[in-house]
Every structure is written in C-alpha cells, then in structure tokens.
Amino acid sequence: MKHFVILLIFCASVFKAQEIKKEIDVKQATVFLQGAKVFGSTNVSLQKGKNMVRITNLPNDLDENTYKINLEKNTTLLSITPQTAVLKNGEMSESDKKLDIEKKKIQRQADLLSIKINTLEGEKKIINDNLKISTNDRETPQKQLIKLTEFYRKRMLEIDNEVFLLNEQKSNFDEGVAKINQTFAENQPHQSANTKELLLEILAENEINLNLGISYIVANAGWIPTYDLRAESVKNPLEIVYKGKIYQKTGQNWNNIKLFVSTYRPSYNQNRPILSPLYVAEYSPYNAQAETQDYKLKESAAKMNSYQMRDEAAKPSQIPVATVSESQMNILYELKYSQNIISQEKEQYVILDKKQVDATYKYHTVPKLSNQVFLMAFVKNWQNLNLISGEANIYFEDNYIGKTTIMSNYIKDEFPISLGVDERIVVKRTKLEDKTSQKTYNSNKSETEKYQIDIRNNTKESINLEILDQLPISENSKISVKATDINGGNYDDKTGSLLWNRTVSSGGSEKINFSYEIKYPKDLQIQYYSR
What we know:
seven-stranded mixed beta sheet, six-stranded mixed beta sheet, 30 strands, flat, about 525 residues, 5 helices, alpha+beta, about 25% helix
C-alpha cells in the first residue's frame, strides 16, 4: 500500500512537470479599421503522450472566441482552456521582465564607461596638479620643464579625445535606458492586474519539437486612413499618397512583424460648403415642437454634398455597412518591410500606396453660404483608386494648404477633391432689392427677388469658376416660383440649384444677376426652410 501511494505521488509529480510555460513571439498582424488579427508562434518540445502547454503572454483584450491553434502532423489538440492570470502587486509581466533584463545590461555598460571616464578625469587632475608644482618650483631645470609641458600637451589631448569618445558611447547607452523607461511608462496604462493565458492539452504520437502557432483577434487596435494630396500646379497630375495611422494599445508590443492593413469602405461627406434645396411654404404660427423638427431637418440637410444636390438632393446620405472579408468590399495592403508597432497611446504612420492621377482643375464657390472660393481637382475613374473616407493633408505648389476630407460614397463619374481656399479670388453676393416689386392682383400677391454676384480674379492666370446658387422650391399648390432671369445659368427645377460656369481672365471681373418671382394668395404668409 505504501509503495502504491508513492507511485501515485510520483505519477502526479511527473504529470505536473509536463506542463510547459511558453511565450509566443508575434510574427504577423492584420490591422482592420477596428480591431486586428494577430498571429504568433513558439517552439515547444513535447513528450510522447499528453502534454500541457501554458501560453502566458496574451493581451487582456483579445476575443476568446477567435483563437485558432496551428499544430504540425502527428499531434492532436485535445482541449483549449482560456484562463486569467492575476499579477501580484509589484510583479512584472513577462514582457516587462525582458525589458528589465535588457535595461540592466545596457545600464551596466553605461556604468563601466562612467568608471573609465572618472579614471581619466582623475589622471587629468593629477597631471594638472603636478604641472602647477613644477612650474612654481624655481629649482626645476628649464629642459625638464619643457619636457613636462610637451608631455602635458600630448597626454591631455589623448585624455580629452578618449573622454569625448567614451561620452559618445555612454550617451547611446543612456538613450537606450531612456527608451526602455519610456516603454515602461507607455505600457503602464494598458497593463492590467489580470492577463490572459491559454492552457492547451496536446497529444503527441512521438517526442517532437513542435512549432506551435496561435492566432486571435484583439479589439484595442486598428487604423485610420489618411492621405497626402500634392499638386505642383493646375497643369500637372495630382499625386495621392495613401497612409495608415495605426494604433494598438493591447499591452503587447509587435516587434519586427509582417504587417497587413485591411480596409472596407465607410462613408462620410467632405467639409466643403453645402447648399440644400430652399422651399417656400405657407406660414404657420410659432410652435416649439415644429421648430425643433425644422432644426433637425436643417441639421440633416447640412450633411448633403453640394455636387450630389444636382441629382440626389431629396434623398438622405446613405452610409453603407461593410464587414472585413475577402471580397470586393475588402482591400488588403501587405507592407514590404518588417514593422515595429509598439503598444502605446500615440499612433504610428505607415505608407500604403502612392499614385499619380490625371485631374481636371476647376474653382468652385457657393456665395450664398460663403465668399470663399475652393480650388477643386476632379478625378475620373475614381472607383479604381480604392479610396475610403478619411482626412487628407493638402499641398499645392510645395506649400501646405490645410486639411480636407476624402469621402467615398460619391455617386458621380468625376470625384471632386477640395484643394483648399484661394484668397486671391474674390466673390460677393448682394441682394439688390428687398421685395421692391410687390404687386397685388385681386386675391394674389407677387414678389420678385433680385441678386447680384460679383467676381474678381486676382491671380496671374485665367480661371474656370463654377458658381452655385439656388431658387426656392414650392411644395404648396397655392405658391408658385418662376425664374425670371438666370443670366445663362443651368437651372435644375427638381432641386432648385442654379449653376454657372465662367472663365475669368487674370485681373478680370464678372457680374452675374439673377431673379425669381413668387406668387401666392395675399392672405397667405410664407416662410423659407431647408431640409
């Protein structure tokens, strides 16, 4: 019986000894707009039979439903048990332990250099003291004094050179220690007292040195698309530089990894002046609830694109929902060189692509909303450029202009990109008369609104300028709106938009006059609103 108990204890101790603790090295990451898929691996020596392998350095924010284990032949995965490891107060994580060991190595090298520097400085002090004694001693022969000064000059030069080189080396070591301290500080906010572990039960047919691979998805990572738009002049192609602003705050550094950036097509509009259809309707007394609704309608209308207005003004902007997958909705960028993506608060930029595209340049203004004139680049076949919504830096003629927004839900053949405001082009919109042409016919009233748009080109070249304005739209059969003078403009009666294209010479000016007439019953009050 005694021997049986000993045998049980021995078997239990052997089984316990078979648990192997390992850390994975992250080899590859695919970063999505939200979240990232991470792949890591480690080498494990397995015995024949059942083996327990504990992976200890997994990030705390991973999704436990996304584990995928890669094994080699002659091995079988029997079970996966996610676990939570609790760090004791003051206890370091495995990644921090490695950093601490590296820091101590670097600090030791820096300390050894400090000893050498201090020794040389001490020697320098002794030589200085002896030279002072010798020069002050009248009994010292002149020849001996000359030799001393020559020795002083030569040796002091050697010491100064050596100290300079040692300080350079020590400065590099000090920078290394400072970087590790910074990494400690950046890791601190993302470290939790609880970390994830994974207990794997693996059956091996024979003793084997296994390359164990694990992939999983983490939430606290992703990327934001950004662009650089560069135009040397309105006669040259437009250069588009695709960039990814990558972030990861998983608490696990990705060192020297293969990086993929994956994206789908979100949608939001540009930050250019927006012109919404203007409606005229019968006036109704003040109603707080109605006013709140009207405000919401106006706020919604502000999200519409002024170019889309020509065809789609009455429809709200649709934002398609997409998922990351291997389909037409997914674009995958594979970076050519290994990357270091550190777990930290700040983002890191990577260059994804660079393209030269042909563009037609035109100026655009909406003087009813703003006197600013925007230089626009219209890109054909833009669907082939794989653009997704994001912020863009604008550079024109080697100067930084500002920022704009790339939007991917545009419906027309030519994609408009705002290159910023040109202050040299002056536009002003003036109301000429305030209902001066009011007339009453029996039971009806007629009003005529007149406006003038003044344009001056102070640039050194002729420009093509697109001017967008509008007339109100009636949704009430009692109210009629008629364009009386549009000065050669293109009028869209569905949206009420009024568009002029003008070529204005250098130093030249242009005037555009337009007017419209509104008729309605004289006992009716009207109001204007947008939606």
